[in-house]
Amino acid sequence: MSKKIMNCVIIGSGPAGYSAAIYAARADLNPILFVGFQPGGQLTVTTDVDNYPGFPIGISGNELMENCKKQALRFNTLIIHKTITEVYLSNQKGGVHFINIENKENIESKGIIIATGSRPKFLGLDKEKKFIGLGVSFCATCDGYFHKGKDVAVVGGGDTALEEASYLSKICKNVYLFVRKNYFRASKALQNRILKKKNINIFFCYQVIEIMGDRFLEGIKIMNNKDKNTKILFISGLFISIGHTPNTELFKNQLNLDKNGYIIVERGGTSTNKPGVFAAGDVQDPIYRQAITSAGTGCMAALDLERYLYLY
Ligand SMILES: Cc1cc2nc3c(=O)[nH]c(=O)nc-3n(C[C@H](O)[C@H](O)[C@H](O)COP(=O)(O)OP(=O)(O)OC[C@H]3O[C@@H](n4cnc5c(N)ncnc54)[C@H](O)[C@@H]3O)c2cc1C
């Protein structure tokens, strides 16, 4: 057990965590970064990342995150391949927080940057995970362009699904929107917007029951929930928009979370309701959920922590 009080513990190894580490390390905060159950974060399950600036011909998600890791190491970030299992967050300004590693040892730190991300919800179908980046997607902004001029499907009836369908309708030939219930959960304004789009075809009371294709997605089998009739639809992209779960189980009862479990941060910043605890990336962002916004808020969190440590 280490008795030394650290300045900066970063929980998470996605774009937010590594960006925070690079800034914190260059400010001499000697950060320790815990990698967690998904080293490199969500981008490691995708193929090409085409929308991260600085890579004119794109870069694979794994290579991008490996580069981030190397950059953090270059400035002597201590990277630990373990998961945080419990935290005790102080209410005092300048207070010390306790961080438990895999139910074994504790470390103490005046500052914590939470970058634990989120995870998309799955339909639970065969090939759904295998075809991520090969036709199956959880993000129209990220992958819509790969399906330019082609037919795609969106699953979901909430705000995000309708926004994804609306975004895709500008790029793709036809968008098929499958809603399990016979109504939308999305706002009226969004419903009105998509009802005006000629190339969005809405199917209420339908669900996707099979993902088809050998090496990549070629089509889907859909079923009408009322009469149980099935159909096959040939599409190049399937966008699953049934929600994300932020990785905030650790912080329940200690940090202010919104109704969906996202950490609430100060507007325009990264401070949480506990002094010295900052949050960055998808874990505090139910709206944008991009690598670049995660990296941006990771940078903000490190700068916010540096200022906090200077004051306390
Ligand atoms: C399939 C797919 C494709 C995508 N494609 C793109 C794209 O092309 N462009 C784009 O901009 N965005 C894309 N995104 C979104 C992008 O991946 C996320 O916005 C981004 O990764 C969020 O970064 P983050 O650092 O907040 O968290 P994440 O990347 O989610 O990383 C979270 C990290 O926290 C760690 N962690 C969680 N709990 C603990 C714990 N208890 N202890 C220690 N560590 C913990 C995990 O191990 C992980 O390393 C894609 C997402 C998916 C799922």
TrEMBL record:
It comes from the Bacteria. The keyword Oxidoreductase applies. Pfam families: Pyr_redox_2 (PF07992). It catalyses: [thioredoxin]-dithiol + NADP(+) = [thioredoxin]-disulfide + NADPH + H(+). Its EC number is 1.8.1.9. Residues 7-297 form the FAD/NAD(P)-binding domain. Keywords: FAD, Flavoprotein, Oxidoreductase, Redox-active center. Signal peptide: none annotated. Its cofactor is FAD. Homodimer. Belongs to the class-II pyridine nucleotide-disulfide oxidoreductase family. This is Thioredoxin reductase. It comes from Blattabacterium punctulatus.
